[in-house]
Each structure stands twice: as structure tokens, then as C-alpha cells.
Design a protein that fits this description.
The protein is built from 16 helices and twelve strands. It is an alpha/beta fold and about 425 residues long. It has a seven-stranded mixed beta sheet, sandwiched between helices. Bound molecules: pyridoxal-5'-phosphate. Its cofactor is pyridoxal 5'-phosphate.
């Protein structure tokens, strides 16, 4: 496959050849758990990681493999490994790179589930995370020590859509020969390509826009192949692994991360993506660019409407000039910002509830990135357990509404919002 094909071409073709036996043009759904070997020597070589090949679907599967290769191509990476969910992908990456006692520097505005795992279960297992304001580069750098294994940020902050100076963070990581990991779930590789701006590894919850229809879970880790693992910071990559005839992963260069993630993490912890989910995800992925363009154009129309509505106090959408991240958005997101943003309605908690209780076309859920338009009222759901102070520190006011603009006709979306705003006191 010509790696220079445009995004829209790669999203349909990368990673796939017509099936040599059936001549099928579509990706085949291969549900077999096991794959046979040609002979004893080939089996031995595959087990010793000396030869590629499928043998058991927890480690590799032909349908999942097409998705892995396609995502690597779309992101400009050298390889990718799929997991059962975005959470499994992120924790799988940490398990691949870190051992108990190691430290992670993580942004304090990550997806709530990631903060929960890092500060709860992962801390209990000995992986310590420092949560920092990702714009405070001095504090970020001051936390780096010999145990630090990665800086982990999200391309778009949750829930206010703030962005980071990715190139500046990458510079700090390069100086300390430290991994820079970006969770690029919200923009997708169509709107933002972290590897072009210095990320070493990109992770996704494919559950969201990649699959795109709100009907299949998944996650994936994409490796840029640019990180030099011959580095004292990563002994798991530089010391021989007895499980595989003393292989040294760092010596596999571009293949180091993906090989270890499959041969150790998927082998020992499971968490693989099911072939059926890969098949569904590939189906969604074929139209990613078309969908994202429509999410972007719909969002622009909805944001403009919100801006002019009397019931709305503020709109936090990075394409508007008054947003803190306006300039970063212009620099890093040339195709547009995307479909997820927040706005504040008048009347605080009561105003927020009025929206949720009267909206008809939008669905009230805590998910985002569906083909359907969705609304969340964080103060009564995702952020309800927090103190007023914690909530405000997370950028969530009582009247904050998070909106995930779907693929419907924007006229209907705006009409739906209009009829709810008529019910909100604007005096
Ligand atoms: C949803 C999400 C995750 C977790 O993914 P799951 O597929 O739900 O496990 C991680 N990061 C971000 C940014 C997300 O939006």
C-alpha cells in the first residue's frame, strides 16, 4: 500500500489485500480462535517471535490485524495493537512499559475514567501517577525523575476542549528521553496527528468516533516507531526476556513496542479486541473523514446559534476567537475542531435540568462521538459527587452542558435547542 495516499484513500484500503482464496474484496470476519502451522519448525519460529504469523486470536487475528495496520497508516505510525476497550489499551500500554514503583506524569484534565484507573487501581498496583495542569510545563518538567516512564495527555481536554502546546511538551520529553503519549480519541487522526507534532505513542478509545456509531467498544495503541528504546529508563526493553529465548525488545527497533505489547501484555493479561468488534470498527472507519467533516460543519452551525441565544451565558468552542485555545486550535487542527464542546445556560442547576428534561432530538447520555447528537449535564452526572471546588477546578459550573454534535441535519438540532431555551428564564 502506497503510504502517500491521502487520508480518505487509506481509511478504505490500508492494511488489506483481496483474500487470496475467496477473492473477497471486503474485509473478511475471521472468527477462528486458532490457526494451523505448516510444520514443526514454523511453529517453533512463530513461538520464538522469529517469524510472523497467526496462531491464536488472543495475540493476533487476521481481521484485527487489518484494523491495526489501517490505524497505523492513518496516524503515520509503524504499527498498532488493538485492545478490548480504550481503557484496556491505555492500561495495556502502561503495563507494557512500566513496572511496579514506576511513575507517570498525567494531565489533570483527562477523561474521568482514566483518572479513576490511574489514581485507584493502578496506584494500588504500584504505578504512581502525578496529575498536573498540562499547561504548566515547568511543573511538568520538575516532576521528572529516573522512575518516570511517560508523560500522558489528551489531545483535547475534558470537558472544556482546551488544547496543549504539544510541540513544547515533546521538546521536554526529548530532552529527558522520555515517552510522550497522547490520547487522541476526541479529534481522531483525521483532525489531529499527534505523531507529526512529536508524540511517540498515540492511544484511542475506538469506541468513540473511530467506530463512530455508538455500537462497538474498542481501543488501540499506535506506535510512531521513532522512540529509541536503548535507554536506561526502560529496563523492560533492554534486559533479555527469558520467556522468549532472551530476546531484547529494544533490539527490534521499530518493532519493539508492538512486539512486547503482543508477546507479553496480550499474552499475559488478555484484553484483546474481538474480531467481530474489529470488523464493526473497520466498517465505521471507512467513512471517518466524511463523518468528521460533517461533525465539524454541524458543530460550527450549532455553536454559532448558541452564541446568539439569550438563554446561553457562554460557549466554550475552540474555533471561537474568545476561547483560550483558539490559537492552538488554528495551529494544530487545520481541518476544524470537532463535535464535542460545552456551553453554559442561564439559571445554574435549574437551567441545566430544564435543558436535559425538555430536549427531544438530542439523547441524554454520558457518552460522546455517536452519529446521534448527545447532551450531558455534568453537574448532575459525571461531576455530581465532587465538591463545588473540585467541580469548578475541573471547569464545570452548575449550568454547564456538554454537547456532542451528531450527523443529523443541523436545522433540526437548532430547532430542538430553540424549543428548550424558550423554557429557560432569561431575565
Ligand atoms: C471513552 C474514553 C476513554 C475510555 O475508552 P473506553 O473505550 O470507554 O474504555 C479513554 N479516553 C478518552 C479520551 C475517552 O473519551
Amino acid at each position: 500500500m502506497n503510504k502517500n495516499y491521502q487520508f480518505d484513500t487509506l481509511q478504505i484500503h490500508a492494511g488489506q489485500k483481496p483474500d487470496p482464496v475467496t477473492k473477497a474484496t471486503g474485509v473478511s470476519l475471521c472468527l477462528s480462535n486458532a490457526f494451523t502451522f505448516d510444520d514443526a519448525d514454523q511453529a517453533r519460529n512463530i513461538f520464538a517471535l522469529e517469524e510472523g504469523g497467526y496462531f491464536y486470536s488472543r495475540l493476533s487475528n487476521p481481521t484485527v490485524d487489518v484494523l491495526q495496520q489501517r490505524m497505523a497508516a492513518l496516524d503515520g505510525g509503524v504499527g498498532a495493537v488493538a485492545f478490548s476497550s480504550g481503557t484496556a489499551a491505555i492500561m495495556g500500554l502502561i503495563m507494557t512499559v512500566c513496572q511496579s514503583g514506576d511513575e507517570i506524569i498525567a494531565a489533570n484534565n483527562l477523561y474521568g475514567g482514566t483518572i479513576g484507573s490511574l489514581s485507584g487501581t493502578m496506584t494500588g498496583m504500584g504505578f504512581h501517577s502525578h496529575f498536573v495542569n498540562p499547561r504548566d510545563l515547568e511543573q511538568m518538567e520538575s516532576l521528572i525523575n529516573e522512575k518516570t516512564k511517560m508523560i500522558f495527555v489528551e489531545a483535547v481536554g475534558n470537558p472544556n476542549g482546551d488544547m496543549l502546546d504539544f510541540e513544547a511538551i515533546s521538546t521536554i520529553c526529548k530532552k529527558h528521553q522520555l515517552l510522550f503519549v497522547v490520547d487522541n480519541t476526541t479529534p481522531t487522526p483525521y483532525l489531529f496527528q499527534p505523531i507529526l507534532h512529536g508524540a511517540d505513542i498515540v492511544v484511542y478509545s475506538t469506541t468513540k468516533y473511530i467506530a463512530g456509531h455508538g455500537n462497538v467498544m474498542g481501543g488501540i495503541v499506535v506506535d510512531s516507531g521513532k522512540f529509541d528504546w536503548h535507554n536506561e529508563r526502560y529496563p523492560l526493553f533492554t534486559t533479555p526476556d527469558k520467556a522468549y529465548h532472551d530476546i531484547i525488545y529494544a533490539d527490534m527497533n521499530e518493532g519493539a513496542l508492538c512486539t512486547k505489547m503482543i508477546a507479553k501484555t496480550l499474552r499475559d493479561l488478555g484484553g484483546c479486541m474481538s474480531p467481530f468488534n474489529a470488523y464493526m470498527t473497520l466498517l465505521g472507519l471507512e467513512t471517518l473523514s466524511l463523518r468528521m467533516d460533517k461533525h465539524v460543519s454541524n458543530s460550527r452551525k450549532v455553536a454559532q446559534f448558541l452564541k446568539t441565544s439569550k438563554a446561553v451565558e457562554w460557549v466554550s468552542y475552540a474555533e471561537l476567537e474568545d476561547h483560550d485555545s483558539y490559537e492552538l486550535c488554528q495551529k494544530y487542527f487545520p481541518r476544524g475542531f470537532g463535535g464535542l464542546f460545552t456551553f453554559g445556560v442561564k439559571g445554574g442547576l435549574a437551567g441545566g435540568k430544564t435543558v436535559i428534561n425538555n430536549i427531544k432530538l438530542f439523547t441524554h447520555v454520558t457518552n460522546f462521538a455517536d452519529s446521534r447528537s448527545l447532551l450531558t449535564h455534568p453537574a448532575s452526572t459525571t461531576h455530581a459527587q465532587m465538591s463545588e471546588e473540585e467541580r469548578l477546578a475541573g471547569g464545570v459550573q452548575q449550568g454547564t452542558i456538554r454537547i456532542s454534535v451528531g450527523l443529523e441535519n443541523p436545522i433540526d438540532l437548532i430547532d430542538d435547542l430553540k424549543q428548550v431555551f424558550d423554557k429557560i428564564e432569561t431575565e
